[in-house]
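Problem: given the chain below (208 residues), write out its structure.
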Amino acid sequence: MAFLLLWLQPPQESGDFLPTDLVEVVTLDASVKLDIRYASTNNFLGRPFYQQARAFLQRPAAEALVRAHKRLEKDGHGILVHDGYRPWSVTKAFWDATPANKKDFVADPAKGSRHNRGCAADITLYDRRTGRVVEMTSGYDEMTERAYPDYQGGTAEQRRLRDLLRAAMEAEGYMVFEYEWWHFDYKDWRRYRIGTLNFEALPPARPR
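Solution.
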């Protein structure tokens, strides 16, 4: 029973962590677009996990993402966010529902995820002229080799856009996840605690 109780809670952490300062990304730049899949049924599990379609990151990570968004403007693109901060309970739900042969694509709740720390962003590009999301080498949350950031299939244009996004994010202190072209971890993720708060407990949304 003691083991079960521990498993139902985030791992215990110790250390000198920075204070949590989650900010809503669109309050820093309203031209960042949102498509929060886990607030809808349009995700790999087909059911909503969030009651609000919002995206939060720790302030330095959010500011770095906005700089990357502005960096992309010269190429006619901008960033669309699928997910940012994710409560630990949602990571636990993802892990439990994912088959063993697909676990590389989800975080182990026993360790917590970078999303739980507010330092991971799931993103793609949109065309600033048309507002349309671009086509990449795979869909978001697709658990196949097409999702790998170094996948050499797809079209040359899909790979170019994928690499364009990666270059902009890496220039601002993010690192791409080895299995997902859309997932970027901010450099200081280890300095923040695992978060458990749902969006409803975070600062209220501001008008965009």
